[in-house]
């Protein structure tokens, strides 16, 4: 699965550059359709991604357990989203564990990010 490392030639991280890194690591093109299914479905656990982030995740969400507000996840509604690889990895690791019971694959990360970018 592994973390991504942005190339030193990339001057700024954007959702698209992070998506391209996940695609390169997974060796397949991301699918926004698969990403939407992954985001909105339960995977044998109590929550889906949309349980806290909303469906679609374009407005403020609310953590299902703590009630804490969560800023919009879609980059077009929150330009700060998916601009720092270390934060993306931290939150995907934590949230994938909550939703999937494991770390997401690079392909799953790419699919979810691809869908979020399209919103």
UniProtKB/TrEMBL annotation:
The keyword Transcription does not apply. The keyword Hydrolase does not apply. Keywords: Heme, Iron, Metal-binding. Residues 30-119 form the Cytochrome c domain. It comes from Undibacterium fentianense. Residues 50-69 have a biased composition (Polar residues). SUPFAM superfamilies: Cytochrome c. InterPro entries: Cyt_c-like_dom, Cyt_c-like_dom_sf, DUF1924_SHP. One of its GO terms (molecular function) is heme binding. It comes from the Bacteria. This is DUF1924 domain-containing protein. Residues 50-81 are annotated as: Disordered. PROSITE patterns: CYTC.
């Amino acid at each position: 699965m592994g973390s991504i490392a942005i190339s030193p030639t990339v001057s700024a991280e954007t959702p698209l550059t992070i998506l391209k890194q996940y695609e390169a690591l997974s060796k397949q093109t991301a699918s926004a359709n698969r990403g939407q299914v992954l985001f909105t479905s339960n995977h044998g656990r109590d929550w889906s991604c949309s349980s806290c982030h909303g469906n679609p995740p374009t407005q403020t969400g609310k953590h299902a357990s703590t009630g804490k507000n969560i800023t919009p996840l879609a980059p077009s509604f929150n330009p700060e989203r998916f601009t720092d690889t270390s934060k993306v990895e931290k939150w995907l690791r934590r949230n994938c564990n909550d939703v999937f019971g494991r770390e997401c694959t690079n392909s799953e990360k790419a699919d979810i990010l691809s869908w979020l970018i399209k919103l």
